[in-house]
Amino acid sequence: MSGRPVKRSLTLQGHRTSVSLEDAFWRAFRDIAAEKDMPINALAAEIDEAREVDVGLASAIRLFVLDWYRKGGGT
Length: 75
Known about the structure:
- By secondary structure, this protein is of the alpha+beta class.
- It contains 3 helices and 2 strands.
- The radius of gyration is 12 Å and the shape is globular.
């Protein structure tokens, strides 16, 4: 497992953006999107809209993933 962030592109509101996350966070993020039966871009857009202005998107995604698993996932 690599601890280095991997940059991938997402589309938010019709615009491409790059987000750097560690592999473990990318896998968890994809798993959550699948569990919620929604595209990863749609989930990213929800997180983007809910985050505070001074919080970066990558950080917001990491915090979302952490919170999801702390709360027991989709159960």
